[in-house]
Amino acid sequence: MAVTNILIYIVVILVTFILYAIKKNFEYWKDRGIPYEEPHVYYGNAKGFRTTRHMNFIIRDFYNKFKNSSTPFSGFFLLSKPVAVVTDLDLIKNIMIKDFNNFNDRYMFFNEKQDPLTAHLFNLDGEKWKPLRQKMTPTFTSGKMKYMFPTIKGVSDELSTAFDKCLTQDDNVEIVDLLARFTTDVIGTCAFGVDCNSLRDPNAEFRAYGRTIFTNLRHTFRPIRMFIMTFPRMARKLGMRIIPDKTHDFFINVVKETVEYREKNNVQRNDFLNILMEMRKNNENGMGQMTIEEIASQTFLFFIAGFDTSSTTMSFALYELAHNQEIQEKLRKEINETLEKNNGEMTYEATNEIPYLDQVISETLRKYSVLSVLTRMTQENYVVPNTKHVIEKGVMVMIPVDAIHHDEEIYPEPYKFDPDRFTDDEIKSRHPMTWLPFGDGPRNCIGLRFGKMQAKIGLIALLSKFKFSVCSKTEEPVTLDPKPFILSPLNGVHLKVEKVQC
How many domains does the chain contain in total? Predict the structure, then answer.
């Protein structure tokens, strides 16, 4: 009996201590005089995240509540983790550019030993990220883009053929999957040197992995996934993984077999994989010889960052053009005029001579931010300029990209699709941190040139031949899938597609 009482006392003391620790932790922002919202005991301020609500809606609501507060950032809790959500544009500029050295980590999970595909450029911390970024930058120069252009152009011809085949069956077309098959074929060729053929075969292996790569994670138990995301360093110390074995083995083997074949047969290609193979041969910047796993992780990043982001951007662009026929006709006219100047041929130079296409893509990325937030972590205590407030060492900082893009004080009528927001004069009139689909500063998206070129080529190929309009299956508005981090339509995008009458 005495033993039982002692055990009860121990349990009561432990529970009391835990509840006290949770309560004390949730007073983190209050103790520092930072405005915040009372958190839920488990979810923090992220209730519904990845179950019923996409993060962009959660942060958009939070931003609108606190954007006019007296402090340049507000306090948020991701589970029990304190997060500084920055609402001041000048502070965002400091974090992304001026004081970047104190904010060069993204606070993302990676595990080089047990989960090597996660140890790619997007996830790596500053010390490992910087030399790798320097080495990989030449991959995405304008010269390399021009070299890859014919390959992408060839795949865009396949895209047009795929749309033609769809029209023989039904003029109501689900475009998201078709565009994802287009970008899968592009990335497969430019990154892996592999002909994926997913436009011809919807069940091709690369496309099958692409369909589930953001949703088929190792852990189905949500609290474990949330733990890994909220405490990535602790998860790494515990040897945790997120990539399923089947996905890991597929991408490792594709890279291994391709590298072995090229080395054995002395095959040289001016593509992403070839550059990584060259990096493997030397020891620049003290990185050491790259392993197959390291090459695979960077190629894996090219795949996940390139196929879905570009395909959803194109899907959202066509969705908006279907609802705005005048904009669609204006863009089609500009595309056709440019093609006529080039004897009907799409060239690399021609894609950069269609300013209205750039405006349409920019407005699409404003309204549908592929990444709704950007994250950084302080390396040392950071005194916010012109204030007494400090963002303490190790605190996660969140840049609310989607919320800024929908701020009516920055973009009047933010839910209206208006490419004229991105004329040269309009861009110059706004703060540079009001448009951040690719981030900014030293850690901006390294593949932005490639992503934009891919989207341009796909849209030119389609709009020059097809007209898009709404149909009975078109969702209004599009329902977003709450599970992936990137913005993605839950039920696809259904549009009426007709051949343009010449």
Answer: 1
pLDDT digits (tens, 9 = 90+) for 120-173: 999 998 788 888 888 788 778 888 888 889 889 999 999 999 998 888 777 799
Q: Is residue 434 part of a domain?
A: yes
Other CB atoms within a 10 A radius of the CB of residue 407 amount to 19
Q: Using an 8 Å Cβ cutoff, are 348 and 378 in contact? A: no
The pair of structure tokens assigned to 95 is 């974090």
Query: Got the DSSP string for 247-293?
Result: HHHHHHHHHHHHHHHHHHHT---SSHHHHHHHHHH--GGG--PPPHH
Q: Are 313 and 368 in contact (CB under 8 A)?
A: yes
Q: What is the CATH number of the domain that holds 330?
A: 1.10.630.10
d(CA 14, CA 20): 10
Residue 195: which of 144, 127, 271 has the closest Cα?
271
Q: Which of 102-116, 202-216, 360-374 has the highest mean pLDDT?
A: 360-374
Instruction: Please indicate, yes or no, if residue 26 is contained in any of the structural domains.
Output: no
Angle at which helices 245-265 and 272-281 cross, to 10°: 70
Residue 205 contacts residue 184 (beta carbons within 8 Å): no
| Residue 44 in tokens | 């923090």
Query: In sequence order, which residues have a C-beta less than 8 Å from that of residue 83 and are 6 or more positions away?
Result: 75, 76, 77, 395, 396, 397, 398
198 in Cβ contact with 181 (< 8 Å)? yes
Q: What phi, psi does 131 have (nearest 5°)?
A: -65, -35
Q: Residue 105: which residues within 8 A CB-CB, separation 6 or more?
A: 125, 126, 129, 376, 377, 379
Look at residue 432 and tell me whether its pLDDT is greater than 80: yes
The span from the CA of 392 to the CA of 84, in Å, is: 10
199 and 159 Cβ atoms separated by less than 8 Å: yes
Structure tokens that stand for 158 in this block: 């396949």
Q: How far apart are the first and last CA of the chain?
A: 92
Residue numbers of the domain that contains 462: 32-499
* 2, part of any domain: no
What is the per-residue pLDDT across 223-278, written as a single tens digit (0 to 9) for each? 787 788 888 888 898 888 888 888 888 889 989 998 898 888 988 876 788 878 87
State the Cα–Cα distance between residues 239 and 381, nearest whole angstrom: 29
Hey, what are 325's tokens?
């026929």
DSSP H or E stretch at residue 62: helix 55-66
